Amino acid sequence: MPESKSLPTVHLYTDGGCSGNPGPGGWAFLLRHPATGKQLERSGAERETTNNRMELMAVIEGLSVLKRRSQVELFTDSVYVGKGLSEWMPKWKANGWRRREGKKWAPVKNEELWRQLDELVGKHQVKYTRVAGHSGHPENDRCDELAVAAYQKYL
User: Fold this and answer.
1) Which has fewest Cβ within 10 Å: 9, 51, 119, 120?
2) What is the reported pTM?
């Protein structure tokens, strides 16, 4: 992969959460450029949402701020996001954004967000790394703190 040598490398840490599921929810990301040490934090919230939607929003918002194609290492505690990116999404796309539910086809939950994420991931080289949530991982803990603070206004 000679192309990856010329791509800037960034680390994207994300988290999302809800007070109740569904309920008020928040998302946050921390984007770091390891070569320069520069970083950016952002967060947001919705009045009525789900934990999975907030996990997806954190990644979407983080990737959206990148101005050029990058090599992105995504750090998240969300198995939903990780498996979605690495296992489920290729199958959903091949099946017209549908998933098997028993013997029937069902629409993919949060399809509009998965489609947005698919488009953004297509612009970058993304490597998914799972981190354990609430385990003392400084960046994951920071994102959790930002996400919770974001949805506090709705409580």
Assistant:
1) 119
2) 0.94
Q: What is the pLDDT of residue 2?
A: 45
Q: Which is catalytic among the residues 46, 55, 61, 139?
A: 55
Q: How far is CA 115 from CA 58, 96, 139, in A?
A: 14, 11, 26
Q: Which fold has domain 2-154?
A: Nucleotidyltransferase; domain 5 (3.30.420)
141 catalytic per annotation:
no
Q: Which residue out of 15, 46, 61, 139 is catalytically annotated?
A: 15
Catalytic, 25? Answer: no
Among the listed residues 16, 17, 25, 44, the single catalytic one is 16
Both tokens of 101, joined, read: 């539910």
Q: For residues 38 and 103, what is the distance between their CA atoms, to the nearest angstrom?
A: 50
pLDDT in tens, 15-43: 999 999 999 999 999 999 999 999 999 99
CA 25, 23, 75 angle in degrees (round to 5)?
A: 35
Spatial strand order of the sheet with 9-18 comes to 39-49, 23-32, 9-18, 71-76, 125-130
Does 1 score more than 90 pLDDT?
A: no
Structural domain spans, the chain: 2-154
